[in-house]
């Protein structure tokens, strides 16, 4: 039908996820249309009932934007089958999902929302939003290591983009990336024979982790400017 809409776009338009996350939910069999398990490529027509995990997906809720200090051991996933998933850990009263990912062993700033449009804006590679990390490694950081890291490293069949890398301690450094390859910093360090011991994200764009305690969140406002809401 001319007025139908792709299922992943429908889910994203309700504000509960990005299109990418919607595709994962569909592939996992968590989405139904009129009681039938959906598949990628399905379209939604007016009057059809879409459910996620058995619950109806309705009108777009009021937008929620959170900055969260993720502890080590928490997984950046909405999958309820993962006992360490970030959603159960936060236990926010409304349905939200993480914007991007942070390794389970890593700590620091991660954003969560119910606004799928914002997710697409932040994760779109061409926007090159900065993400800043503090990293400790298993041996002394040398000038040669810093220089070669900053020039780009061949990992995952690509060369990473040039980035800012600054030594802040004998075995620690600060790195600012504008891309988000899988386990990028750990792979970059591994290429030069270094093992990452701790990795903490302290900034995404202009949003800083600051003094937010581990395991707590604070609300931020669109367009993702810090709000005056208290920490939780």
TrEMBL record:
Source organism superkingdom: Bacteria
UniProt key word DNA-binding: no
Gene3D superfamilies the record matches: Alpha-L RNA-binding motif, Pseudouridine synthase I, catalytic domain, N-terminal subdomain, RNA-binding S4 domain
Sample GO molecular function, one term: isomerase activity
All copies of domain RNA-binding S4, residue ranges: 5-63
SMART domains: S4
EC nos: 5.4.99.-
InterPro entries assigned to the protein according to its UniProt record, in alphabetical order: PsdUridine_s_RsuA/RluB/E/F_cat (IPR042092), PsdUridine_synth_cat_dom_sf (IPR020103), PsdUridine_synth_RsuA/RluA (IPR006145), PsdUridine_synth_RsuA/RluB/E/F (IPR000748), PsdUridine_synth_RsuA/RluB_CS (IPR018496), RsuA_PseudoU_synthase (IPR050343), S4_RNA-bd (IPR002942), S4_RNA-bd_sf (IPR036986)
Keywords annotated in UniProt: Isomerase, RNA-binding
Family: Belongs to the pseudouridine synthase RsuA family.
Alphabetical list of PANTHER family matching this protein: PSEUDOURIDINE SYNTHASE FAMILY PROTEIN-RELATED, RNA-BINDING S4 DOMAIN-CONTAINING PROTEIN
Protein name: Pseudouridine synthase
Species this chain originates from: Neolewinella maritima
């Amino acid at each position: 039908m001319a007025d139908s809409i792709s299922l992943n776009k429908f889910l994203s338009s309700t504000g509960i996820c990005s299109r990418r996350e919607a595709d994962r939910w569909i592939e996992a069999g968590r989405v139904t249309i009129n009681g039938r398990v959906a598949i990628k490529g399905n379209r939604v027509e007016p009057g059809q009932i879409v459910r996620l995990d058995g619950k109806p997906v309705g009108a777009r809720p009021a937008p929620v934007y959170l900055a969260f200090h993720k502890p080590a051991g928490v997984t950046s996933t909405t999958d309820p089958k993962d006992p360490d998933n970030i959603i159960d850990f936060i236990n926010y009263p409304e349905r939200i999902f993480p914007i991007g990912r942070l390794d389970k062993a890593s700590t620091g700033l991660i954003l969560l929302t119910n606004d799928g449009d914002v997710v697409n804006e932040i994760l779109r590679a061409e926007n090159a939003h900065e993400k800043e990390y503090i990293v400790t490694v298993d041996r002394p950081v040398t000038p040669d290591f810093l220089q070669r890291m900053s020039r780009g490293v061949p990992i995952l069949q690509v060369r990473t983009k040039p980035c800012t890398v600054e030594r802040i301690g004998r075995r620690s450094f600060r790195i600012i990336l504008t891309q988000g390859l899988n386990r990028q910093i750990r792979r970059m360090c591994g290429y030069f024979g270094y093992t990452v011991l701790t990795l903490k994200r302290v900034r995404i764009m202009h949003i800083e982790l600051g003094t937010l305690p581990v395991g707590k969140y604070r609300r931020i406002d669109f367009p993702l400017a810090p709000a005056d809401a208290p920490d939780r």
